[in-house]
């Protein structure tokens, strides 16, 4: 018997039909993949199922009975758990409080903190995650926060579990832990919906698949074993997806680095970090969750205290105070891994998001009074139009709120604002998290072209194939220290072995 069904579901936003008669069936004891490009309607469907959005048509059925959820709390109470693509942790709460938020244990009318620690530790152990339940979630990395989100969903012991890009910010070893848990849930009769742009994961753990394109179902509940990867991609994009081929690009290894770190230590725990990025070079930072890669980037931007060592930009020692100082005085941009909270202003228009870094440059004056300076609408509109076209950002108009865009388009907006500022050094943190295969290839081509045009790029990614595709050199970090560096041979098997050996400090094999 089908455990959960969505029948002919519709959802309309101003100017956009996000869902157009979508059908979905989830069986007990199975893992069902929901696939589609960014903007196809996957996250919208999940938000309809969990009560965040009211459907404009169609119906939902649980155990054959029609249901209607007015809030995520109602859907959770009915046994539907969810891990959303964007974070939904409460910053003022601890790890344990967030995990058990739906059903906080109490004793004599008061919150039982001993029980919270015990119960939260149980669900963290399911993911082999060593975190203190009393730790404030504000101290977590993005990857750790993602794993806490998963533990939170597991804690309500859902009959239906919806996973929206659950492995987007975690490493392959952490994903394997999650897949073991998913396997156990499947054996217990749970119905799991798995949304991912990583097709290798989909084929590893899923039984059936539904594919959305432009808000409509183009395949409904097909056995995944009957399909090849190319056939799935064809269904998603409407044509066979061609393998990415990047043109030759060379780096002048004798050029003076645009960005150089020497013996850098930080308050977060980095110790003696040496690193250099030359014009036209892509240097990758790779490591497991907690290695300190994103924290190092933030220290370079003045967001964490540097306690020792030196940062040099174009050969001169500098002390960067904040992100504005990094951009205005040193032409350093930062594409954050956390696009929802740091990358874009969700409640502002696409136009404002792109132009915000160059308002000073665009400002015109009225007469001789500096207080009457303003940003000409035409100049801003022309600039925004150029980057929307250049990056292929799919929007209804520049006035559209950034928060209504798909994840891939939000990431393009985040990148556009730094390109508009004419940065010369670009730090890109997890550029393709939650992005479909075609958009990912477009990002890879764009990053490659930026380097070819002379930008110095420091690339942080947990996606090893992405790292090997793009980076000229891979710097491996563990425990906030650099463990070694590998010049990229572009041979995946050789590179992955060398990188993983550095991560785990394995000795090199005898020659």
Automatic annotation (TrEMBL):
A GO term for molecular function: ATP binding
InterPro entries assigned: AAA+_ATPase, ABC_carbohydrate_import_ATPase, ABC_transporter-like_ATP-bd, ABC_transporter-like_CS, P-loop_NTPase
Keywords of this entry: ATP-binding, Nucleotide-binding, Repeat, Transport
Domain (ABC transporter): residue spans on this chain: 4-239, 248-504
This protein's name: Ribose transport system ATP-binding protein
Source organism: Kribbella aluminosa
